[in-house]
Amino acid sequence: MKRYILIAYGLARDRLRNETAYMANIFAETASTVFYVISYLLFINFLFAKIGSVAGYSKNDIYFMMLVGQLTFYLYASLLLSAGVKIISTVRNGEFDLLLLKPINTIFYIYASSIKPITTTLISLPNLLILTILINWQALNLTPISLVLGFITWLASILILNTLIIATVYPVFTRGEATDTIN
Fold first, then answer.
1. Is this prediction's pTM over 0.85?
2. Of 149, 112, 117, which Cα lies nearest the Cα of 19?
3. Which of 3, 63, 129, 180 shows the greatest Cβ crowding within 10 Å of its Cβ?
C-alpha cells in the first residue's frame, strides 16, 4: 500500500509540472466552458420565459439536472476518458508492454497518471459555482430516498460510461487502432 501512495505522490508531482506548463490553454478552455454554460443558461431562461414547465420540470429542476450533468461530464472527461486515451497511446507507442512488467497494478498506474486535477478544477469550478448559486435549493423536492436512488442511478451511469470506454478501447489490442471509436 505504501508503494502505491508513493507512486501516486510521484505521479501527482509530475501532473502538476505538466499541467502548469500550459496555463494559457487551461484559461482558454475555462473561458470556453463558461461561455457554453452561460449560453445554455440563456437558452433555458428564454425557454422558461414563454412556458412554465417542460414535462413537469421547472427551471430550478432543469438547473439541478444541468449541475448533475456538468459534474458527471467533468468526472467523465478527467477520469475515464483520459485513461482510455492513455491506454490507446501507450499501446500504440509500445509502452503498454513495459507497464505490464512493472510491479504495480497497470490500471491503477494508467488512471492515476492520466488524472489532471488542476485543469479539471480550474475548468469545472466556475461553471459548477454558477449553477450552484442559481439553484433555489429550498424549492427542490429532494427527499433522502430520492437522493439515494438518484446517487445509485448516477453511479450506474458512471459504470456504464466506463464500460463503454473499455469497449471502445479494446480494438487497439486487436487491430492496433481505436482512436476513431473513442473520439
1. no
2. 117
3. 63
